[in-house]
Design a protein that fits this description.
- This protein is mainly α.
- It folds into 2 domains: 415 residues, no CATH class; 57 residues, no CATH class.
- The chain is built from 17 helices and no strands.
Protein backbone atom coordinates (compact mmCIF):
# COMPACT_ATOMS: atom_id res chain seq x y z
CA UNK A 1 0.00 0.00 0.00
CA UNK A 2 2.93 2.34 0.68
CA UNK A 3 4.14 1.69 -2.87
CA UNK A 4 0.75 2.56 -4.34
CA UNK A 5 0.61 5.71 -2.23
CA UNK A 6 4.12 6.86 -3.12
CA UNK A 7 3.93 6.17 -6.87
CA UNK A 8 0.59 7.95 -7.26
CA UNK A 9 1.69 10.78 -5.00
CA UNK A 10 4.87 11.21 -7.05
CA UNK A 11 2.88 11.53 -10.28
CA UNK A 12 0.40 13.90 -8.67
CA UNK A 13 3.09 16.17 -7.24
CA UNK A 14 5.09 16.08 -10.49
CA UNK A 15 2.10 17.26 -12.53
CA UNK A 16 1.17 19.91 -9.99
CA UNK A 17 4.76 21.18 -9.81
CA UNK A 18 4.73 21.52 -13.59
CA UNK A 19 1.56 23.58 -13.68
CA UNK A 20 0.58 25.20 -10.39
CA UNK A 21 3.80 27.09 -9.56
CA UNK A 22 3.52 28.88 -12.91
CA UNK A 23 -0.11 29.64 -12.12
CA UNK A 24 0.71 31.02 -8.68
CA UNK A 25 3.93 32.90 -9.49
CA UNK A 26 3.56 33.48 -13.21
CA UNK A 27 -0.13 34.36 -13.57
CA UNK A 28 -1.72 35.10 -10.18
CA UNK A 29 1.26 37.11 -8.94
CA UNK A 30 1.57 39.00 -12.26
CA UNK A 31 -2.11 39.92 -12.05
CA UNK A 32 -1.60 41.40 -8.57
CA UNK A 33 1.48 43.35 -9.67
CA UNK A 34 -0.42 44.56 -12.74
CA UNK A 35 -3.64 45.73 -11.09
CA UNK A 36 -2.07 46.78 -7.74
CA UNK A 37 -2.49 45.66 -4.12
CA UNK A 38 -5.74 47.55 -3.54
CA UNK A 39 -7.55 46.22 -6.62
CA UNK A 40 -6.27 42.70 -6.03
CA UNK A 41 -7.22 42.97 -2.35
CA UNK A 42 -10.76 43.83 -3.50
CA UNK A 43 -10.83 40.60 -5.53
CA UNK A 44 -9.05 38.52 -2.86
CA UNK A 45 -11.49 39.45 -0.09
CA UNK A 46 -14.47 38.62 -2.35
CA UNK A 47 -12.85 35.32 -3.34
CA UNK A 48 -12.39 34.45 0.33
CA UNK A 49 -16.03 35.39 0.99
CA UNK A 50 -17.19 33.12 -1.86
CA UNK A 51 -15.26 30.27 -0.21
CA UNK A 52 -16.70 30.80 3.28
CA UNK A 53 -20.09 29.25 2.49
CA UNK A 54 -18.90 27.08 -0.39
CA UNK A 55 -19.46 23.94 1.66
CA UNK A 56 -23.23 24.59 1.51
CA UNK A 57 -23.24 23.31 -2.08
CA UNK A 58 -21.13 20.28 -1.19
CA UNK A 59 -22.37 19.28 2.27
CA UNK A 60 -19.56 16.74 2.52
CA UNK A 61 -20.87 14.90 -0.54
CA UNK A 62 -17.47 14.58 -2.22
CA UNK A 63 -15.91 12.91 0.85
CA UNK A 64 -18.99 10.73 1.35
CA UNK A 65 -18.94 9.71 -2.31
CA UNK A 66 -15.20 9.06 -2.29
CA UNK A 67 -15.33 6.83 0.79
CA UNK A 68 -18.33 4.80 -0.40
CA UNK A 69 -17.17 4.25 -3.97
CA UNK A 70 -13.70 3.28 -2.68
CA UNK A 71 -15.45 0.55 -0.67
CA UNK A 72 -17.92 -0.48 -3.41
CA UNK A 73 -17.23 0.58 -7.01
CA UNK A 74 -20.70 -0.50 -8.19
CA UNK A 75 -22.34 2.29 -6.19
CA UNK A 76 -21.34 4.93 -8.74
CA UNK A 77 -24.32 4.23 -11.04
CA UNK A 78 -26.74 4.46 -8.12
CA UNK A 79 -25.29 7.54 -6.46
CA UNK A 80 -24.49 9.73 -9.49
CA UNK A 81 -28.01 10.81 -10.58
CA UNK A 82 -29.17 11.32 -6.99
CA UNK A 83 -26.14 13.41 -6.10
CA UNK A 84 -26.44 15.57 -9.23
CA UNK A 85 -30.00 16.55 -8.30
CA UNK A 86 -29.00 17.23 -4.71
CA UNK A 87 -26.01 19.35 -5.74
CA UNK A 88 -28.14 21.56 -7.99
CA UNK A 89 -30.54 22.20 -5.11
CA UNK A 90 -27.66 22.91 -2.76
CA UNK A 91 -26.16 25.32 -5.30
CA UNK A 92 -29.35 27.37 -5.24
CA UNK A 93 -29.13 27.49 -1.44
CA UNK A 94 -25.45 28.51 -1.67
CA UNK A 95 -26.23 31.44 -3.98
CA UNK A 96 -29.19 32.57 -1.90
CA UNK A 97 -27.42 32.43 1.47
CA UNK A 98 -24.20 34.00 0.16
CA UNK A 99 -25.96 36.95 -1.45
CA UNK A 100 -28.11 37.49 1.64
CA UNK A 101 -25.03 37.58 3.89
CA UNK A 102 -23.27 39.88 1.39
CA UNK A 103 -26.10 42.40 1.65
CA UNK A 104 -26.23 42.14 5.44
CA UNK A 105 -22.52 42.90 5.88
CA UNK A 106 -22.75 45.91 3.59
CA UNK A 107 -21.45 44.88 0.16
CA UNK A 108 -22.43 47.35 -2.57
CA UNK A 109 -23.54 46.57 -6.13
CA UNK A 110 -20.02 46.90 -7.56
CA UNK A 111 -18.87 44.18 -5.16
CA UNK A 112 -21.94 42.00 -5.66
CA UNK A 113 -21.49 42.00 -9.46
CA UNK A 114 -18.03 40.46 -9.17
CA UNK A 115 -19.18 38.22 -6.31
CA UNK A 116 -21.89 36.67 -8.50
CA UNK A 117 -19.28 35.48 -11.00
CA UNK A 118 -17.05 34.18 -8.19
CA UNK A 119 -20.00 32.27 -6.73
CA UNK A 120 -20.64 30.68 -10.13
CA UNK A 121 -16.96 29.75 -10.35
CA UNK A 122 -17.20 28.05 -6.97
CA UNK A 123 -20.24 26.12 -8.22
CA UNK A 124 -18.26 24.85 -11.22
CA UNK A 125 -15.27 24.00 -9.02
CA UNK A 126 -17.53 22.14 -6.61
CA UNK A 127 -18.90 20.05 -9.48
CA UNK A 128 -15.33 19.31 -10.60
CA UNK A 129 -14.38 18.10 -7.13
CA UNK A 130 -17.47 15.91 -6.93
CA UNK A 131 -16.86 14.37 -10.37
CA UNK A 132 -13.22 13.75 -9.43
CA UNK A 133 -14.29 12.06 -6.17
CA UNK A 134 -15.83 9.35 -8.36
CA UNK A 135 -12.57 8.89 -10.23
CA UNK A 136 -10.38 8.72 -7.12
CA UNK A 137 -12.94 6.48 -5.42
CA UNK A 138 -12.52 4.07 -8.34
CA UNK A 139 -8.77 4.16 -7.49
CA UNK A 140 -8.01 5.78 -10.89
CA UNK A 141 -5.34 7.94 -9.32
CA UNK A 142 -3.35 8.61 -12.50
CA UNK A 143 -6.43 9.93 -14.30
CA UNK A 144 -7.33 12.00 -11.25
CA UNK A 145 -3.78 13.39 -11.17
CA UNK A 146 -4.09 14.61 -14.76
CA UNK A 147 -7.50 16.13 -14.08
CA UNK A 148 -6.23 17.90 -10.96
CA UNK A 149 -4.20 20.32 -13.09
CA UNK A 150 -6.53 20.68 -16.10
CA UNK A 151 -8.36 23.76 -14.86
CA UNK A 152 -5.14 25.56 -13.89
CA UNK A 153 -3.52 24.69 -17.23
CA UNK A 154 -6.48 26.20 -19.08
CA UNK A 155 -6.37 29.30 -16.88
CA UNK A 156 -2.66 29.72 -17.63
CA UNK A 157 -3.32 29.60 -21.38
CA UNK A 158 -6.23 32.07 -21.26
CA UNK A 159 -4.57 34.51 -18.83
CA UNK A 160 -1.27 34.40 -20.71
CA UNK A 161 -3.06 35.54 -23.85
CA UNK A 162 -4.81 38.34 -21.94
CA UNK A 163 -1.65 39.48 -20.13
CA UNK A 164 0.98 39.18 -22.85
CA UNK A 165 -0.87 38.53 -26.12
CA UNK A 166 -1.43 42.21 -27.00
CA UNK A 167 -4.97 41.39 -28.11
CA UNK A 168 -6.45 44.48 -26.44
CA UNK A 169 -5.36 48.06 -26.01
CA UNK A 170 -7.04 48.33 -22.60
CA UNK A 171 -5.11 47.73 -19.35
CA UNK A 172 -5.65 44.31 -17.76
CA UNK A 173 -8.67 44.31 -15.46
CA UNK A 174 -9.31 42.08 -12.47
CA UNK A 175 -12.66 41.07 -14.00
CA UNK A 176 -10.83 39.41 -16.91
CA UNK A 177 -8.98 37.26 -14.40
CA UNK A 178 -12.30 36.06 -12.99
CA UNK A 179 -13.80 35.41 -16.46
CA UNK A 180 -10.76 33.30 -17.38
CA UNK A 181 -11.37 31.13 -14.33
CA UNK A 182 -15.03 30.69 -15.36
CA UNK A 183 -14.07 29.41 -18.81
CA UNK A 184 -11.43 27.04 -17.43
CA UNK A 185 -13.70 25.56 -14.77
CA UNK A 186 -16.52 25.03 -17.28
CA UNK A 187 -14.37 23.21 -19.84
CA UNK A 188 -12.86 21.04 -17.10
CA UNK A 189 -16.33 20.14 -15.78
CA UNK A 190 -17.41 18.87 -19.19
CA UNK A 191 -14.25 16.76 -19.61
CA UNK A 192 -14.49 15.15 -16.15
CA UNK A 193 -18.22 14.46 -16.53
CA UNK A 194 -17.64 12.61 -19.80
CA UNK A 195 -15.00 10.42 -18.12
CA UNK A 196 -17.29 9.65 -15.17
CA UNK A 197 -20.22 8.75 -17.45
CA UNK A 198 -17.96 6.31 -19.30
CA UNK A 199 -17.44 4.36 -16.06
CA UNK A 200 -21.03 4.57 -14.79
CA UNK A 201 -23.04 1.76 -16.37
CA UNK A 202 -26.61 3.04 -16.44
CA UNK A 203 -29.34 0.62 -17.35
CA UNK A 204 -31.91 3.15 -16.28
CA UNK A 205 -31.43 6.51 -14.61
CA UNK A 206 -33.62 6.69 -11.52
CA UNK A 207 -33.93 9.21 -8.74
CA UNK A 208 -34.37 7.63 -5.33
CA UNK A 209 -35.09 10.31 -2.75
CA UNK A 210 -34.58 7.82 0.08
CA UNK A 211 -30.97 7.44 -1.13
CA UNK A 212 -30.61 11.23 -1.25
CA UNK A 213 -32.08 11.64 2.22
CA UNK A 214 -29.85 8.94 3.69
CA UNK A 215 -26.81 10.42 1.97
CA UNK A 216 -27.62 13.89 3.29
CA UNK A 217 -27.92 12.56 6.85
CA UNK A 218 -24.58 10.81 6.59
CA UNK A 219 -22.74 13.63 4.85
CA UNK A 220 -23.86 16.75 6.74
CA UNK A 221 -21.27 16.26 9.55
CA UNK A 222 -18.58 16.34 6.84
CA UNK A 223 -20.16 19.52 5.48
CA UNK A 224 -20.08 21.16 8.88
CA UNK A 225 -16.42 20.23 9.26
CA UNK A 226 -15.61 21.71 5.84
CA UNK A 227 -17.49 24.91 6.64
CA UNK A 228 -15.72 25.37 9.96
CA UNK A 229 -12.28 24.71 8.48
CA UNK A 230 -12.85 27.27 5.72
CA UNK A 231 -14.07 29.80 8.28
CA UNK A 232 -10.85 29.72 10.31
CA UNK A 233 -8.66 29.45 7.19
CA UNK A 234 -10.26 32.10 4.96
CA UNK A 235 -12.09 34.58 7.17
CA UNK A 236 -8.98 36.74 7.76
CA UNK A 237 -9.02 38.70 4.52
CA UNK A 238 -12.78 39.27 4.70
CA UNK A 239 -12.47 40.71 8.21
CA UNK A 240 -9.53 42.88 7.15
CA UNK A 241 -11.51 44.37 4.26
CA UNK A 242 -14.60 44.96 6.39
CA UNK A 243 -12.98 46.26 9.62
CA UNK A 244 -10.22 48.61 8.45
CA UNK A 245 -10.63 51.94 6.60
CA UNK A 246 -7.91 50.82 4.15
CA UNK A 247 -9.22 47.26 4.18
CA UNK A 248 -8.68 46.63 0.46
CA UNK A 249 -5.03 47.57 0.74
CA UNK A 250 -4.48 45.47 3.89
CA UNK A 251 -6.24 42.49 2.29
CA UNK A 252 -3.94 42.88 -0.72
CA UNK A 253 -0.82 42.96 1.48
CA UNK A 254 -2.08 39.92 3.38
CA UNK A 255 -2.63 38.17 0.02
CA UNK A 256 1.03 38.75 -0.84
CA UNK A 257 2.15 36.92 2.28
CA UNK A 258 -0.59 34.30 1.96
CA UNK A 259 0.13 33.30 -1.66
CA UNK A 260 2.99 30.86 -0.98
CA UNK A 261 1.16 29.35 2.01
CA UNK A 262 -1.85 28.74 -0.23
CA UNK A 263 0.33 27.15 -2.92
CA UNK A 264 2.12 24.95 -0.37
CA UNK A 265 -1.21 23.91 1.16
CA UNK A 266 -2.38 22.74 -2.27
CA UNK A 267 0.45 20.21 -2.25
CA UNK A 268 -0.54 19.15 1.25
CA UNK A 269 -4.14 18.53 0.20
CA UNK A 270 -2.88 16.32 -2.63
CA UNK A 271 -1.77 13.94 0.13
CA UNK A 272 -5.26 13.98 1.59
CA UNK A 273 -6.91 13.26 -1.77
CA UNK A 274 -4.91 10.06 -2.16
CA UNK A 275 -4.82 9.03 1.50
CA UNK A 276 -8.55 9.34 2.29
CA UNK A 277 -9.74 6.46 0.07
CA UNK A 278 -6.68 4.40 1.02
CA UNK A 279 -7.22 4.86 4.75
CA UNK A 280 -10.96 4.18 4.36
CA UNK A 281 -10.35 0.93 2.49
CA UNK A 282 -7.66 -0.27 4.92
CA UNK A 283 -9.82 0.51 7.96
CA UNK A 284 -12.74 -1.41 6.47
CA UNK A 285 -10.50 -4.42 5.79
CA UNK A 286 -8.94 -4.19 9.28
CA UNK A 287 -5.45 -3.66 7.86
CA UNK A 288 -2.62 -2.12 9.86
CA UNK A 289 -2.49 1.57 8.93
CA UNK A 290 0.47 2.61 11.12
CA UNK A 291 3.15 2.22 8.46
CA UNK A 292 1.22 4.20 5.84
CA UNK A 293 0.33 6.91 8.36
CA UNK A 294 3.90 7.25 9.63
CA UNK A 295 5.36 7.30 6.12
CA UNK A 296 2.90 9.87 4.75
CA UNK A 297 3.18 12.02 7.88
CA UNK A 298 6.97 12.24 7.64
CA UNK A 299 6.90 12.80 3.87
CA UNK A 300 4.81 15.93 4.39
CA UNK A 301 6.01 17.25 7.75
CA UNK A 302 9.75 17.12 7.06
CA UNK A 303 9.60 19.27 3.88
CA UNK A 304 7.13 21.58 5.67
CA UNK A 305 9.56 22.25 8.51
CA UNK A 306 12.51 22.68 6.14
CA UNK A 307 10.54 25.08 3.96
CA UNK A 308 9.15 27.09 6.87
CA UNK A 309 12.59 27.64 8.39
CA UNK A 310 14.42 28.35 5.13
CA UNK A 311 11.74 30.76 3.91
CA UNK A 312 11.70 32.61 7.23
CA UNK A 313 15.41 33.38 7.07
CA UNK A 314 14.96 35.00 3.65
CA UNK A 315 11.36 36.21 3.88
CA UNK A 316 12.10 39.85 2.99
CA UNK A 317 14.32 38.97 0.05
CA UNK A 318 11.63 36.66 -1.34
CA UNK A 319 8.87 39.25 -1.04
CA UNK A 320 11.10 41.90 -2.59
CA UNK A 321 11.75 39.57 -5.51
CA UNK A 322 8.08 38.81 -6.08
CA UNK A 323 6.31 42.13 -5.56
CA UNK A 324 6.62 45.68 -6.76
CA UNK A 325 5.25 47.24 -3.56
CA UNK A 326 4.69 46.53 0.19
CA UNK A 327 7.48 43.91 0.30
CA UNK A 328 8.57 44.74 3.87
CA UNK A 329 5.06 44.50 5.33
CA UNK A 330 4.32 41.34 3.36
CA UNK A 331 7.66 39.78 4.43
CA UNK A 332 6.79 39.85 8.13
CA UNK A 333 3.32 38.44 7.42
CA UNK A 334 4.78 35.79 5.14
CA UNK A 335 7.18 34.56 7.82
CA UNK A 336 4.39 34.07 10.35
CA UNK A 337 2.12 32.34 7.83
CA UNK A 338 4.84 29.88 6.79
CA UNK A 339 5.17 28.78 10.42
CA UNK A 340 1.43 28.12 10.21
CA UNK A 341 2.06 25.79 7.28
CA UNK A 342 3.76 23.26 9.57
CA UNK A 343 0.60 23.12 11.69
CA UNK A 344 -1.60 22.97 8.57
CA UNK A 345 0.43 19.96 7.36
CA UNK A 346 -0.05 18.16 10.67
CA UNK A 347 -3.80 18.78 10.47
CA UNK A 348 -3.98 17.52 6.87
CA UNK A 349 -2.55 14.07 7.66
CA UNK A 350 -4.15 13.69 11.09
CA UNK A 351 -7.51 15.01 9.92
CA UNK A 352 -7.55 12.73 6.87
CA UNK A 353 -7.06 9.60 9.00
CA UNK A 354 -9.65 10.74 11.55
CA UNK A 355 -12.10 11.50 8.73
CA UNK A 356 -11.56 8.08 7.14
CA UNK A 357 -12.19 6.52 10.55
CA UNK A 358 -15.47 8.41 10.93
CA UNK A 359 -14.47 10.62 13.87
CA UNK A 360 -16.29 13.60 12.40
CA UNK A 361 -18.13 14.70 15.52
CA UNK A 362 -14.91 15.15 17.47
CA UNK A 363 -13.23 16.91 14.54
CA UNK A 364 -16.19 19.27 14.39
CA UNK A 365 -15.83 20.09 18.07
CA UNK A 366 -12.18 20.99 17.49
CA UNK A 367 -13.13 23.09 14.46
CA UNK A 368 -15.85 25.00 16.34
CA UNK A 369 -13.40 26.00 19.06
CA UNK A 370 -10.87 26.96 16.36
CA UNK A 371 -13.37 29.21 14.56
CA UNK A 372 -14.31 31.02 17.76
CA UNK A 373 -10.64 31.45 18.61
CA UNK A 374 -9.75 32.76 15.14
CA UNK A 375 -12.58 35.30 14.94
CA UNK A 376 -11.93 36.51 18.48
CA UNK A 377 -8.20 36.92 17.84
CA UNK A 378 -8.88 38.76 14.58
CA UNK A 379 -11.28 41.16 16.28
CA UNK A 380 -8.64 41.90 18.92
CA UNK A 381 -5.54 42.05 16.70
CA UNK A 382 -6.72 43.57 13.40
CA UNK A 383 -7.52 47.09 14.75
CA UNK A 384 -4.06 47.32 16.35
CA UNK A 385 -1.82 45.35 13.99
CA UNK A 386 -3.78 45.28 10.71
CA UNK A 387 -2.75 42.47 8.31
CA UNK A 388 -0.05 41.28 10.69
CA UNK A 389 -2.72 40.76 13.35
CA UNK A 390 -4.58 38.39 11.02
CA UNK A 391 -1.38 36.43 10.35
CA UNK A 392 -0.74 35.95 14.08
CA UNK A 393 -4.37 34.96 14.66
CA UNK A 394 -4.08 32.36 11.88
CA UNK A 395 -0.84 30.91 13.27
CA UNK A 396 -2.23 30.54 16.80
CA UNK A 397 -5.44 28.95 15.51
CA UNK A 398 -3.65 26.47 13.25
CA UNK A 399 -1.32 25.46 16.09
CA UNK A 400 -4.25 24.88 18.42
CA UNK A 401 -6.20 22.83 15.83
CA UNK A 402 -3.17 20.68 14.96
CA UNK A 403 -2.36 20.01 18.62
CA UNK A 404 -5.90 18.88 19.43
CA UNK A 405 -6.04 16.64 16.36
CA UNK A 406 -2.77 14.97 17.33
CA UNK A 407 -4.06 14.38 20.88
CA UNK A 408 -7.26 12.87 19.45
CA UNK A 409 -5.27 10.69 17.05
CA UNK A 410 -3.08 9.35 19.86
CA UNK A 411 -6.13 8.64 21.99
CA UNK A 412 -8.01 6.73 19.27
CA UNK A 413 -5.23 4.86 17.45
CA UNK A 414 -2.63 4.65 20.24
CA UNK A 415 0.01 6.14 17.95
CA UNK A 416 2.40 7.16 20.71
CA UNK A 417 5.64 8.80 19.51
CA UNK A 418 8.67 6.94 20.82
CA UNK A 419 11.48 8.64 22.74
CA UNK A 420 13.74 7.89 19.78
CA UNK A 421 11.48 9.73 17.33
CA UNK A 422 11.22 12.75 19.64
CA UNK A 423 15.03 12.92 19.92
CA UNK A 424 15.35 12.57 16.12
CA UNK A 425 12.98 15.49 15.58
CA UNK A 426 14.78 17.65 18.15
CA UNK A 427 18.13 16.98 16.43
CA UNK A 428 16.63 17.61 13.00
CA UNK A 429 15.05 20.90 14.07
CA UNK A 430 18.15 22.07 15.96
CA UNK A 431 20.47 21.44 13.01
CA UNK A 432 18.11 23.37 10.73
CA UNK A 433 17.97 26.41 13.03
CA UNK A 434 21.73 26.49 13.60
CA UNK A 435 22.36 26.11 9.86
CA UNK A 436 19.95 28.93 9.11
CA UNK A 437 21.63 31.27 11.59
CA UNK A 438 25.11 30.49 10.29
CA UNK A 439 24.22 30.65 6.60
CA UNK A 440 22.25 33.89 6.93
CA UNK A 441 25.42 35.58 8.25
CA UNK A 442 27.55 34.44 5.33
CA UNK A 443 28.36 36.88 2.55
CA UNK A 444 26.57 34.90 -0.16
CA UNK A 445 23.57 35.58 -2.36
CA UNK A 446 20.35 34.80 -0.52
CA UNK A 447 19.12 32.07 -2.87
CA UNK A 448 22.39 30.16 -2.37
CA UNK A 449 21.80 30.38 1.36
CA UNK A 450 18.21 29.23 0.95
CA UNK A 451 19.34 26.25 -1.14
CA UNK A 452 22.04 25.38 1.42
CA UNK A 453 19.51 25.33 4.29
CA UNK A 454 17.16 23.08 2.29
CA UNK A 455 19.95 20.66 1.34
CA UNK A 456 21.24 20.51 4.94
CA UNK A 457 17.71 19.88 6.22
CA UNK A 458 17.14 17.06 3.74
CA UNK A 459 20.45 15.38 4.56
CA UNK A 460 19.76 15.76 8.29
CA UNK A 461 16.37 14.03 7.90
CA UNK A 462 18.21 10.98 6.52
CA UNK A 463 21.18 11.28 8.90
CA UNK A 464 18.83 11.19 11.92
CA UNK A 465 16.91 8.33 10.23
CA UNK A 466 13.58 10.11 10.31
CA UNK A 467 13.50 8.98 6.70
CA UNK A 468 15.57 6.16 5.23
CA UNK A 469 16.55 5.45 1.63
CA UNK A 470 15.66 1.82 2.23
CA UNK A 471 12.07 2.66 3.15
CA UNK A 472 11.64 4.85 0.09
CA UNK A 473 13.26 2.25 -2.17
CA UNK A 474 11.02 -0.52 -0.82
CA UNK A 475 7.97 1.68 -1.39
CA UNK A 476 8.91 2.07 -5.05
CA UNK A 477 9.64 -1.63 -5.69
Amino acid sequence: MKRKFLTNLTLLIFLNLLVKPFWVFGIDLTVQNTVGASEYGFYFSLLSFSLLLNIVQDMGIANYNNRNIARNHDLISKLLPNILILKLLLALAYFSISLTVAVIIGYHWIQIKLLLILLFNQFLNSMNLYFRSNISGLQMFRTDSLLSVTDRLLMIIICSILLWGNITSSPFRIEWFVYAQTAAYFITSVVILLIVLKHASFRKITIDFSVTQNMFKQSYPYALLGLLMVLYYRTDSVMLERILPDGKMQAGIYAQGFRILDAASMLGFLFAGILLPMFAKMIKQNENIWQLFRFSFLLLIIPSIIGAIALNFYRFEIMDLLYKAHADEAGTIFGVLMISFVFVSISIISGTLLTANGNIRKLNMIAIVSVVMNITLNLILIPCHQAMGSAVASMITQFFAALLQLVLLIKIFRFYPSTRVIIQFILFFSVLIVTGILVSHLSITWYYGFFLICITGSLTAFATRLLTFREIRESLL
